[in-house]
């Protein structure tokens, strides 16, 4: 690499570090269907088979920051498609009442359904019934999901949930002030058993390194680069000027795996 390119890259990293440390955080109510294709692949090829091997007959899933439903609905589609015999329940929470109301009456416009860059025709056909111009989620995809208002910064509420096999809190921690994001992470950790898996796309990288080490979470070394690059389709353009921007993938850092990895296991891998 030329010296001038190296310097430019270094300056962009410094800029991003500064932006992350100084920009006020703001809640964003935004989501997409079928947003995490390589995470789904990791779920199907690695995470669920591991849970099944450990003897699990049914799986309990908690999704925080579910917004208007796209994430848990996409997840339910993946589980139904790849594990038709699997019993599972998805408890999906958000702090914004309106989006929970929206998710409970799951009829979406064409624009909403096709908004995400990874949405496939197979996903749409297997997930929705077309009603006029609108798309209603099929009853069998909705049935395992319960939507409710819930705050991941409320420890009593989290404690009331018991344990979960899979916990999702994606594209939310980086919208919280740092102290709240750290607190939320530590509360999420209380939901995990030694077999549980945490999905945590969308948090500050340095915080992810520190918090996953603090709570002895092991990165699942599977499709890390592909999952990272999925997120860059939306968020690559925000790097280095926005705190939510996703940097280009690199293995140069000693901590490259924890910086980039979005799926963690409580068990030692
Ligand atoms: C950018 S959206 C992400 C939606 C979805 N997880 C995804 O990745 O597509 C962030 C969501 O987190 C919700 N949220 C923010 N703070 C929260 C909290 N303390 N507890 C639960 N949800 C929260 C917001 O209301 C918003 O709907």
Q: Rounded to an integer, what's the Rg over CA atoms?
A: 18 Å
Distance between the ends: 35 Å
Q: Report strand order across the widest sheet.
A: 6-2-1-7-8-10-9
Shape: globular
Number of strands: 10
Order of helices and strands: HHEHEHEHHEEHEHEHEHEHHE
CATH topology: Rossmann fold
Short account of what is shown:
By secondary structure, the protein is α/β, with parallel strands linked by helices. It is built from 12 helices and 10 strands. The radius of gyration is 18 Å and the shape is globular.
Question: What does the model show?
Answer:
The protein is globular, with a radius of gyration of 18 Å. The strands form 2 sheets. It has a 7-stranded mixed sheet. A 3-stranded antiparallel sheet has the order 3-5-4. It is α/β, with parallel strands linked by helices and 269 residues long. The model has no long low-confidence stretch (mean pLDDT 96). The protein contains 12 helices and 10 strands. The chain binds S-adenosylmethionine (SAM). The site of S-adenosylmethionine has 23 residues, from helix 3 and strand 2.
Please give the structural blueprint:
Elements: H1 3-22, H2 37-53, E1 58-64, H3 70-82, E2 87-94, H4 97-104, E3 107-108, H5 110-113, H6 121-127, E4 128-131, E5 134-137, H7 139-142, E6 145-149, H8 155-160, E7 164-169, H9 178-189, E8 192-199, H10 205-214, E9 218-219, H11 224-235, H12 256-260, E10 263-265
Parallel strand pairs: 1-2, 1-7, 2-6, 7-8
Antiparallel strand pairs: 3-5, 4-5, 8-10, 9-10
The chain binds S-adenosylmethionine (SAM).
């Amino acid at each position: 690499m030329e010296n001038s390119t190296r310097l430019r890259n270094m300056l962009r990293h410094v800029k991003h570090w500064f932006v992350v440390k100084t920009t006020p955080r703001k809640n964003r109510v935004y989501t997409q269907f079928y947003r995490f294709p390589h995470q789904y692949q990791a779920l199907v090829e690695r995470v669920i088979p591991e849970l099944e091997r450990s003897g699990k007959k049914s799986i309990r899933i908690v999704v925080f920051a579910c917004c208007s439903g796209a994430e848990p609905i996409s997840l339910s589609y993946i589980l139904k498609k790849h594990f038709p015999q699997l019993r599972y329940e998805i408890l999906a929470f958000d702090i914004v009442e309106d989006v929970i109301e929206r998710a409970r009456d799951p009829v979406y416009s064409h624009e909403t359904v096709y908004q995400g860059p990874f949405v496939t025709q197979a996903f749409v056909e297997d997930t929705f019934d077309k009603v006029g111009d609108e798309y209603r989620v099929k009853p069998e995809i909705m049935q395992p999901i319960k939507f409710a208002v819930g705050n991941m910064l409320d420890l009593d509420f989290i404690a009331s949930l018991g344990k979960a096999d899979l916990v999702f809190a994606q594209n939310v921690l980086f919208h919280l002030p740092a102290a709240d994001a750290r607190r939320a992470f530590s509360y999420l950790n209380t939901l995990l058993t030694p077999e549980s898996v945490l999905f945590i796309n969308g948090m500050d990288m340095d915080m992810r390194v520190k918090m996953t080490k603090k709570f002895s979470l092991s990165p699942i070394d599977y499709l890390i680069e592909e999952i990272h690059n999925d997120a860059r389709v939306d968020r690559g353009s925000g790097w280095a000027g926005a705190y939510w921007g996703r940097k280009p993938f690199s293995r140069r850092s000693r901590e490259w795996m924890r910086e980039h990895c979005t799926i963690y296991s409580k068990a030692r891998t």
